[in-house]
Specification:
The chain has one domain (about 10-205): tt1808, chain A (Alpha-Beta Complex). The longest helix is centred in the N-terminal third of the chain and has 17 residues, at about 30-45. The chain is about 25% helix and about 25% strand. The protein has about 210 residues and is α+β, with helices and mostly antiparallel strands. Residues about 1-15 have low confidence and may be disordered. A hairpin with a 4-residue loop joins strand 9 and strand 10 (about 170-175). The chain is globular, with a radius of gyration of 19 Å. It has helices spanning about 5-10, 30-45, 65-70, 110-115, 120-125, 190-205; strands spanning about 50-55, 60, 75-80, 90, 100-105, 130-135, 140-150, 150-155, 165, 170-175, 180.
């Protein structure tokens, strides 16, 4: 018996409820680095409600994946011009066909080769993700690529060794052996904890004992 595309769609589960299917992070270094990337950007953009950050979350880009889950998602991805709300996974056909504007993979000895080849090709050719970065928390290797005429071209470091991200409007660079964000003026984007510590130090300098 033949079945129409509409009938098939009606038989499919509610894709918005599909769970992520990502493996555990490689090490505590990777966990800390991922949390740092998320917390800094969430804090910097705390007044915005039009973006979504995915952390070790599966991106489903075709319905066949609901059966075989044949591809893992990025370690970190950013999607702009979308509703900021919790999601169990990112399902492109439930999200107006949106794909990430930026992807960061945290490289490890076991994943680096796939991240640099298979995943990079997928992000370039299928996702059409404008910017892709790879960073190793262990070796501090950092590489960035920007989509140009359908192909990834390497992003060149500035004199401080940082790479400009058009999607973020920020630089990405290494600070104290971690991947961090920097403003266009080169100022480190602080975590909420660092912001509190800085404020406390400023108050103490003014002779005010902070009540933390």
């Amino acid at each position: 018996m033949s079945i129409t595309a509409q009938q098939l769609a009606e038989l499919m589960p509610d894709a918005t409820q599909v769970e992520s299917d990502e493996p555990e992070m490689e090490s505590s270094l990777h966990y800390v680095q991922l949390a740092l990337l998320v917390s800094c950007l969430e804090w910097l953009w705390r007044d915005k409600n039009d973006f979504f950050i995915g952390a070790n979350l599966t991106i489903y880009f075709n319905r066949q994946q609901l059966k075989n889950k044949d591809f893992r998602g990025p370690d970190f991805f950013l999607i702009k011009q979308t509703q900021k709300r919790p999601r169990k996974s990112w399902v492109t056909w439930e999200e107006e066909g949106k794909y990430p504007d930026l992807i960061i993979e945290l490289l490890s000895e076991s994943t680096a080769e796939i991240d640099k080849t298979v995943k990079k090709d997928l992000y370039q050719n299928r996702f059409r993700t404008p910017e892709y970065f790879g960073f190793s928390p262990e070796t501090l290797e950092l590489a960035g690529f920007r989509l140009s005429q359908g192909k990834y071209e390497e992003i060149i470091n500035n004199e401080s060794g940082q790479m400009w991200s058009e999607s973020l409007g920020l630089y990405l660079g290494i600070y104290q052996q971690q991947l961090r964000y920097f403003t266009a003026e080169g100022k480190l984007v602080l975590t909420p904890e660092e912001t509190a510590e800085q404020l406390a130090a400023q108050l103490k300098a003014l002779g005010v004992e902070p009540d933390l």
